[in-house]
Amino acid sequence: MYKDIEHLVRLAAVMLIVLAAFVILRTAIVPKSFGQYGHFRGAAIAEIAAKPIVHAGHHACETCHTDIVDKKRTGKHVVVACEACHGALANHADDPSIQPAKLDTAVLCARCHEANSAKPKWFPQVATADHSGGLACDTCHQPHTPKIEAEKTAAAGGKP
Amino acid sequence: MDTTRRRLIMLLPAAAVAWKYVLAGTPEEAPNYEMTEHWWAMLIDVTKCIGCGSCVRACAQENDVPEGYFRTWIERYHVSDWKIERPDVESPDGGKEGFPANEVGDGKYFFIPKMCNHCADSPCTQVCPVGATFVTPDGVVLVDKTYCVGCRYCIQACPYGCRFLNPKTNTADKCTLCYHRITKGLTTACCEVCPTGARQLADLKNPKDPIHEFLKTHTVQVLKPQMATGAKVFYNGMDGSVR
Fold first, then answer.
1. Distance between CA B61 and CA A87 in Å, rounded?
2. How far is A129 from chain B (nearest CA, A)?
3. CB-based contact (8 Å) between A48 and chain B?
4. Does A30 touch chain B (CB under 8 A)?
5. pLDDT single digits (tens) A144-154
6. C-alpha distance from residue B140 to each of B40, B122, B182, B231, B240 (Å)
7. Which residue does chain A place closest to B139, by CA atoms?
């Protein structure tokens, strides 16, 4: 009855070898953390979370620049975070010797305050060409406390 | 006899300290962020968006987004008086440098900031053939770029057009909800720089988060609710014409 069993044994042996190779390869190739939280590599979460921070956040700025915090508190720009105008400055927060770039009020102020029909009506807007006649915004307005100062208006020729 | 007792008493504090360590087991590493304690979302108040593009610029800087690609962008809608179902939408350079003054026609104009909706039942993660994109236990949709094969299925599957193929890595790329920031107690780069507070990061699992009060007192909606993606970017004051 078992006369021709040899070829079955051979077949079984081959299948066993293939199965073993598959198991060994699979454990070697699939990352350890795959399946930790679901059908993905769990370690990827920590890798993405480890990316360096570029914007320091206004709390970091406020620990040193307390004078600016006090100044901003008196004006409407108190709600605007430092890096909204000054740009990403985590490198400056880590190493204060790195100085941030000088800002151009003509570009920065207009970005928010240039009149546009799509802007909400409550938001203060001006058509810069008519409003200042080419004068730089910070001739009259101090960006940290933008409400106009009387003496500055007089110095700029009386135009509000 | 005396010396042995003294020695034994002297050994007691050391033994107590050692026993404390045995009871405590191995100390855990940095247990300050627990994924299961958060469920992240975003609130976008359309009535506050001025289309300045600060969010787009900050996102590009924070996340090294290649030129011409966007993880977040702003659209300017024009819904004319008679063509309500076909609004005109424009987004020059993703609104990165703000919007130029436009010819004012009839109807209404408004800005809509867009980004990944971090869907709870996200279509993009469901189609990924290799498990390279996933929803984290704290509700953020991420891409494992070492696992992504760049097949672009997810880019097609996203109903919001939030994904792109990064030309540097040739892998799918998208908003991470600044996962590297929110896990360290900071807000996202776009929320950080938004000058009017139109964008607010929200943790739905935190009972003290101001979003709960906002959701109680306002009528919010998500983009394409009919697709049942479980979108978690909530829009306040959004017009029904927004697609």
1. 9
2. 12
3. yes
4. no
5. 999 886 555 55
6. 7, 10, 11, 11, 26
7. A45
User: How large is the average pLDDT for residues B38-58?
Assistant: 96
Q: Give Cα B148 to chain centroid, integer Å.
A: 20
CA–CA separation, B186 and B179 (whole Å): 10
Helices and strands in chain B, H and E counts: 7, 11
Domain spans, chain A: 2-49, 53-101, 103-160
pLDDT digits (tens, 9 = 90+) for B87-97: 999 999 999 99
Coil, strand, or helix at residue B234?
strand
Q: Does A119 touch chain B (CB under 8 A)?
A: yes
Classify A139 as helix, strand or coil. Answer: helix
The whole-model pTM stands at 0.85
- Taking phi over 0 as left and psi of -120 to 50 as alpha, with beta for the rest, B24 belongs to alpha
Asked whether the beta carbons of A56 and A83 are under 8 A apart, the reply is yes
CB < 8 Å to A120, chain B: 47-50, 110
Which of B105, B200, B52 is closest to A124 using CA atoms?
Answer: B52
Chain B residues touching A127 at Cβ < 8 A: 101
Complete edge-to-edge strand list for the sheet that includes strand B199-203: B199-203, B40-45, B233-236, B220-221
The whole-angstrom separation of Cα B159 and Cα B164 is: 13
Question: What integer best gives the mean pLDDT of chain B?
Answer: 90
ipTM of the shown complex = 0.84
Report the distance separating Cα B30 and Cα B26, nearest Å.
13
Whether A87 contacts chain B with CB within 8 A: yes
Q: What is the pLDDT of residues B118-147, one digit of tens each?
A: 999 999 999 999 999 999 999 999 999 999
Cβ contact, residue pair A45, B146, below 8 Å: no
CATH 3.30.70.20 describes domain B35-236: yes
